[in-house]
Write a structure and sequence with these properties.
The chain is mainly alpha-helical. The protein has ten helices and two strands. The two termini are 20 Å apart.
């Protein structure tokens, strides 16, 4: 059974006119007419509202209409390639902290590049801090004339570097998980 016939049958079973159904869904009577005559298809949010109103699953609502089923696209499947690449930019802190984000910045799509830039910058923070810390250690050794930097300075520097490095790792994991958990988007062609 086509989706239009299914909607008409369910509407009549509930003793609703096209106008009443349209009011319940916040659409016009003409929209309901188009759906029932297969001249148009409901948007995904209207399909959900129809399934709730008629107390049937989305699967039951569209199951018989093979043409309509083919028009519904789940963008990216379970985990889209874009979301996976975007999240890998953040998780790459564990396996390729500069290479992976750099490659996605060079060849990725706009949204993937954005995540690549954020990940690359965050991965750079501990390295930049390390070089600053080493410069401070060298400068302090030179200024005091000692062969080694002040031990208190080293302890504080290493502690700060460790705290910032752990924070950067945690931030990258959180960002990677957020990107992966982004809800799927549906589209009807």
């Amino acid at each position: 059974m086509k989706i239009g016939e299914q909607i008409r049958m369910l509407r009549k079973n509930k003793n609703l006119s096209q106008e009443q159904l349209g009011n319940k869904l916040n659409v016009s009577r003409q929209a309901v007419y188009k759906w029932e005559s297969d001249k148009g298809y409901p948007e995904i949010q209207n399909l959900i509202a129809l399934s709730e109103l008629f107390d049937i699953s989305l699967d039951e609502l569209i199951k018989g209409d093979k043409v309509f089923q083919k028009r519904i696209i789940v963008k990216g499947g379970i985990i889209s390639n874009r979301r996976l690449l975007s999240s890998l930019n953040y998780f790459s802190i564990f396996f390729a902290p500069f290479l992976f984000p750099f490659i996605t910045i060079l060849v990725g799509e706009k949204d993937i590049k954005g995540h690549g830039k954020r990940a690359f910058l965050s991965h750079s923070i501990p390295v930049i801090l390390y070089f600053i810390m080493m410069s401070v250690f060298s400068l302090s050794s030179y200024l005091t004339g000692a062969d080694q930097p002040n031990s208190i300075l080293v302890i504080w520097g290493v502690t700060i570097l460790a705290i910032i490095s752990v924070s950067v790792v945690i931030w990258n994991v959180i960002q990677g998980v957020k990107v992966i958990k982004t809800p799927l988007k549906y589209e009807i062609k």
